[in-house]
Amino acid sequence: MKTLKYAWRFLMRSKSYTVINLLGLAFSLACCIILMRYIHRELTVDAHSIDPEHIIIPLRDIEGNIFPGNLQQDGVGTDSVYIPEDHVMEQCRMVVQQQDNVVHGNSSYSMNVLAVDSTFFHFFRYPLLTGTASLNAPDDAIITRHYAHRIFGKENPVGKVLKFNGKSVIIRGVVDEPECKTLLRFDMLVSFKLMDNWRRLYASLMRVLPGVDPDAINMVSNVYHKDNRGSMIRWKFVNWKDFYWEKSMSHHHNYDSIMQFGNRTYLYILSGVAMLLLLVGILNFINIYMVFMMKRSKEYGVKKVFGLQRLPLFLQIWIENQLLAVIALLTAWLLIETTQIPVNRFMNETIEYSAFDWQLSLGFLLLLPLVTSIYPYIKYNYIPPIISIRSIATNRHSITVRMAFLFTQYVITALLLILSLYFGKHLDFLLNTPTGYRTECILKAQLLHENQVNPGPNRVARQLRIKQLLNECPHIDLWMTSNITILGGNSICTILNDKDVQQSIPTLFISSTFFQFYDLKVLEGEIPEKFDGWADYKIVLNKAAMKTFGYNQLKDAFVRSETPLWVVRTQDGQMEEGGTKLMPVMAVIDNYYPGHLTEGIKPMAFIVGRAGYGDNYLISIKPSKEKEVIEYLKKIEKEIYNTEDFNYTWLTDEVHKLYAQDRQTANVYFVFALIAIIISCLGLFGLSLFDIRQRYREIAIRKVNGAGMKDLYSLLFRKYIKVIGCAFALAVPLSYYLIYMYTRDFVLKVPVGAGIYLVALVTISLISSGTLIWQIHKAAQIDPAKIIKSE
């Protein structure tokens, strides 16, 4: 108890250094805790799954088109040889119905619906609020708490009837969201047995025996072979716990609303930033603590002469650090609580309090004081008492250690600042580079809510009415229906030229309106407008594809596909395949960026036919008429479906969404580089405060001997500027290496450039100089007579 009292009394006597130390550590801990909570939430995705190590999901890869699949499905073929049936304990089939239409009474709702087997709840645990969590009957349904409240308000939804795909489903239970983040984001579960044929490929979750090794299976299955339709297919088997990190699925337009995927690279970046910030905080803490420990060096020397043992010395240092750590941690959590809303927006994730917060706080309370006490204890335990009594404030070794800690802090700070400047510049490059197609005043709206699994009897009439209303709107330039956009919906097809040189390239099945709609420039030929029936398709290539296949002129260009590009039923009922014979290329369009800019220009093929169909309406609007058209489309929805749900996205927003991860990375580096600068400047302020005050007598003597203000500024600045300059010199190659490693696979990227390093150097120099200048100016203005007299 007496030791605790002495520790608290000493901290209160050194108020300036205590406050500086607490602020630096609190900022560091707050940032580190925020990042570690986010990382923990990402690493515990689907923690509600039951035995995820033995849940496997097959990924079907048909000529580069990757999506979840099922080993046994009609019309696709069977590949069950990879996992014997006796090794599969149970399965759960799953059909994704994204943004589908559900009707209650006279109102329609757009919902993410999963059609699953009754075994779904053998794979995942969801908190059951009311009713039962079972899908045994074909018309059973489970709804989430959020959507139950939206549709029924405070009424009990159990037993209520909804219309889905023309069938009635009865709500049997209401489930809440689990505490962990989930890959699946559904609003309602329906029974897989609701429909005899879902008219789409479905996925299957398999619980396998412990001895089944997906990696060993992938060595055999992950090789292309022909299926029963002649397409090249291969399989990859992924553990459910790894499915969240599957890169091939992360931007798939068929799953972007109902499934969410993670990015390991981004998580590595956050982990690195968290460790660097914690290291900056700890180094700053030890450095400042050692500064005000120097005031007690004589005290420790005298105590050691009178028999101070190792344990009491360690306990005194540890308790002081423990008190500082407790107060800093409480301050950090106060900062986290007060900034929770902007931080959630910044991280694009709502993170609730959990048991991990207590575990993290307890870990810091146990380990942080121990780590920060080791160096001071070793230093004062092994220094002879005579040296301590002489005062080690001017000891060369002590000064070197303090400068080494400060140097390390500034290396990290400069590194984070350079990275933030580069990724900010890179983001600006991504957002402002022309895409090669029109993006302004184009929106995608879901006006038709009846899918083709079981279309309603009035579907055609509704389609015609929507068409009429769109044609009547004076503010709409052009519109078309398609599930394929400039950014998504392409397939990967193997195309061959007349010399059988083959290349797997993105291929879009579109109408001729597509090129006019997006203002794609035609370089040669003409876009075909007339077609002889549904089996008549023409092919168009972009400039990059022409170069890939070795064509310089349109008249020489003939290509075909390795497998059928289209299959149609003729009038006599026969199935006719097309695209496998050489076809003349009808036109060449200019290149554009079909996805993320860093992927570069890709060779592309366009299979052009009659106007297609789809639930999505792509609408080109006259400039400055966006609000009027949105209101008009809402009225259409109200008239056709009596619903307030109106889902639409602007193409400019979709383009920006491509760079959401880049934007977040740039923001993370910028914000935490700023925090690192603040922490380092606090450390610089504390060190210089002690160091300059220790040199007051030297300054006074120099002034008596004629030293001017310029001489004093140079004397006091020199040491710190050298440290900062050397730290920056080391940060430059480190940052260049990290930038190179991060961007080495980018086709297009912004060059590093000397300007980034110059801006970083000027920024750090100005802020650090501003931190020092007040104290140096104050020291230079001292009265030599008073100082020498007091000495």
UniProtKB/TrEMBL annotation:
Domain ABC3 transporter permease C-terminal: residue ranges: 273-385, 670-784
Molecular functions per Gene Ontology: transmembrane transporter activity
The cellular location(s) given in this protein's UniProt record come to: Cell membrane
Per the record, membrane topology reads:
Multi-pass membrane protein
Top-level taxon of the source organism: Bacteria
The record places domain MacB-like periplasmic core at 18-217
The record's listing under PROSITE patterns reads: PROKAR_LIPOPROTEIN
The UniProt entry, under InterPro entries, shows: ABC3_permease_C, MacB_PCD, Macrolide_Exporter_MacB
* Cellular-component GO terms for this entry: plasma membrane
Q: Where would you find the membrane-spanning parts of this chain?
A: 20-39, 266-292, 313-336, 356-378, 399-423, 668-690, 720-742, 754-774
Pfam families attached to this UniProt entry: FtsX, MacB_PCD
The protein's UniProt keywords, in alphabetical order, are: Cell membrane, Membrane, Transmembrane, Transmembrane helix
PANTHER family registered for this protein in UniProt: ABC-TYPE MACROLIDE FAMILY EXPORT SYSTEM PERMEASE COMPONENT 2, MEMBRANE COMPONENT OF TRANSPORTER-RELATED
Q: What is this protein called?
A: Uncharacterized protein
Give the organism's phylogenetic lineage.
Answer: Bacteria, Pseudomonadati, Bacteroidota, Bacteroidia, Bacteroidales
